[in-house]
Fold this sequence. Notes:
The protein is an all-beta fold.
Amino acid sequence: MRPTWIALALLAACGDRKPPTDADPVTDTDAATDADTDADTDTDPALPIDTANPDFLLVINEVLADAAVADANCDGTIESVDDEFVEIVNAGGIPIDLSGAELIDLTGTRHLFPAGSILEPLGAVVVFGGGTPTFDGSNPAAWCAALPAGVVTQTASTGATGFNNDGDTLTLVGPSGTVLGAVVYGPEGDGAVSLNLDPELDPAGRWVLHDTLSSADWSPGRRATGEAFSETPAGTGGTDTGPVFFPAGVLINEINADPSTVDGDASCDGVIDSADDEFLELYNPTPAAVDLSGWTVTDDTSAAGANRDLSPGTRRDGTPL
């Protein structure tokens, strides 16, 4: 399924649609440099990524932004930049060639996938900030055992992932500019525990703290339980009792808080109205549908914590149709 635009009746806009572009001036607080040291000069074209194929399903499954206490890459050194990682899994039924794809955060491109970055079905790539990922069992930590077949590691082509601990937006963009997946997290990333999808490999799942799914704080290249992605998980999933932060994937892509009094008929109803023509645009870059029923849109002046109710059968003020 192609990425889906989520249109809200109360916030309609009549302009052209486009994938999200990040104009957020957030400054990356990690002590990482963005100088690209990738010496890859391979110009062979990558295989096209067929996101319309019903067997296509690429999932960002786990993110560790705060690696202050983690030798997550198992190279024998705890380093807060090198041990950050993002885990990307091919949860579909066809190979996916990520050659030339980019991993981007609020600062810019963090990793350019080199030629030959092909994920077979239920294969995965774990992109670390740096160091020398060593998954051969020489490190006694449980997660440092040899990775399952089809799981590979890479290190950031720019020298660091530089994920902000207290909030960031990670976007995976294909060589043609197609958004393949995205993650938005807030201060919950600043806890020395990874964020993990629940259920795993489900782009419509929820982001939860990894230690609510198992006793481990992270599990690069494996399910939270330590099993291979190709194995049927032993647990039932969805039984964690920890905090749930947000469903995966949905992005706030555009906001119009001050419609023009000259050409600001954003709702296309023939009337320029400074209140009616305000809008908020949500975008779902994942291949799975996201149910917004029961969601609310709030701001810092919302009465009773909710400004707009997205429940089915309601007007924009929350009253029944």
